[in-house]
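Supplementary Methods. Inverse-folding protocol.

Structures were first reduced to a discrete structure-token string of length 64. This string, shown here, constituted the complete conditioning input.
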């Protein structure tokens, strides 16, 4: 989910006129959650995969 938030020329003029500044930041997404830090997104993604694998192993070990 990448959204282009480029400013229009009019918006840039208004920002300069009113001395408004903007900064761009990177946000990482994993399974619907947002993270400011890549290491946090990776930690969640890895633990999520491990949980799914553990659940699958438990289901395979259960007699039917």
């Amino acid at each position: 989910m990448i959204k282009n938030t480029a400013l229009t020329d009019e918006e840039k003029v208004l920002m300069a006129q009113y001395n408004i500044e903007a900064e761009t930041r990177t946000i990482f997404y994993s399974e619907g959650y947002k993270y400011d830090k890549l290491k946090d997104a990776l930690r969640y993604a890895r633990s999520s995969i491990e949980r799914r694998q553990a659940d699958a192993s438990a289901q395979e070990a259960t007699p039917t």
